[in-house]
Specification:
- By secondary structure, this protein is an alpha/beta fold.
- The chain has a single domain, classed as 4-Layer Sandwich (Metallo-beta-lactamase, Chain A), CATH 3.60.15.
- The chain has 6 helices and 14 strands.
- The chain has helices at 14-23, 84-93, 106-111, 183-187, 206-216, 230-241; strands at residues 30-35, 38-43, 46-50, 71-73, 98-102, 119-122, 127-132, 135-143, 160-166, 169-173, 194-198, 220-224, 246-247, 255-257.
- Strands 6-5-4-3-2-1-14 form a 7-stranded mixed sheet, with no helix packed on it. It has a 7-stranded mixed sheet with strand order 7-8-9-10-11-12-13.
- The longest helix has 12 residues, at 230-241.
- It starts with 13 loop residues before the first helix and ends with a strand.
């Protein structure tokens, strides 16, 4: 699976992005796209990193420079989503941060050097809570199909999507996910504000991503984890077939604050 548009824009600097994240204080969640499935999600002074793949040549951040992570979320154990070398560096720089991951991925993460005490494991229908400075965030897990659900009785679901809830806003990050019949039913109760959906390959088709956004009533939808050029197909589909659906197409490193409803 490709990482979306390639190198960062001309003039881009890692340190500037870190500073921008640290200095951003908004009344609604703010997101930055790190390429592939990687996002920074920030609300007030809470900063979560989701699937940060920072070991590649086009990484937008140097993992060793990240000191502001409150939680790091990995949707599954594949290296593009659980980038162990980068996560180790992030945990070293962010002393109180925890890695949230599927319970089936914990042993693999530990074998890569991540201590068990720095992990919080989860599974479908479980909730992780985070408190900071009188602020409250919740992370709910839902199964993702990659391309099958592959659940086991002991390991649970190895591929997860996360619903990150800040106040009345919910960011759904699907990880790697293909369509399956009960997905919309699982997501609908969360009143998704922004759906971050992978398109192409074994993930959603463009039309499936648009249909899922409609089925769950997502206010906004954004594609991720796509081959270069696929964003044009997404834009054409949304404008031509779903003109009433609001959408966002990120550029690498781009910052976007969710509009007030």
């Amino acid at each position: 699976m490709g990482c979306g548009p390639g190198p960062p824009p001309k003039g881009f600097h890692h340190v500037n992005l870190i500073q921008d994240i640290d200095q951003t204080l908004t009344a609604t969640p703010t997101l930055w796209w790190l390429g592939r499935a990687g996002f920074v999600v920030r609300f007030a002074n809470i900063t979560f990193y989701v699937d940060p793949f920072l070991s590649g040549p086009n990484a937008l951040l140097a993992a060793a420079n990240i000191k502001n992570a409150d939680m790091i979320l990995a949707t599954h154990a594949h290296p593009g989503h659980l980038d162990a070398p980068a996560i180790l560096a992030m945990l070293e720089g962010s002393k109180t941060a925890k890695l949230i991951l599927p319970k089936s991925a914990a042993d693999q993460a530990h074998a890569a050097g991540i201590p068990y005490p720095r992990m919080t494991t989860t599974d479908a229908d479980l909730r992780v809570e985070y408190f900071k400075d009188n602020l409250y965030a919740r992370v709910y897990a839902v199964p993702s199909a990659h391309p099958e659900l592959d659940r086991t009785p002991l390991g649970g679901y190895p591929y997860l999507g996360y619903l990150i809830r800040f106040g009345r806003w919910t960011i759904y990050h699907a990880g790697d996910c293909a369509h399956y019949d009960s997905l919309a039913e699982r997501l609908r109760p969360y009143n998704v504000s922004v759906a971050l959906l992978p398109i192409g390959g074994k993930n959603f088709s463009v039309s499936e991503a648009g249909q899922l956004a409609e089925d769950i009533g997502a206010k906004w939808v954004a594609p991720m984890h796509y081959e270069p050029g696929r964003e044009s197909d997404f834009i054409a589909h949304m404008l031509g077939r779903r003109p009433h659906q609001q959408f966002m197409v990120f550029q690498p490193g781009e910052k976007w604050t969710v509009p007030e409803e």
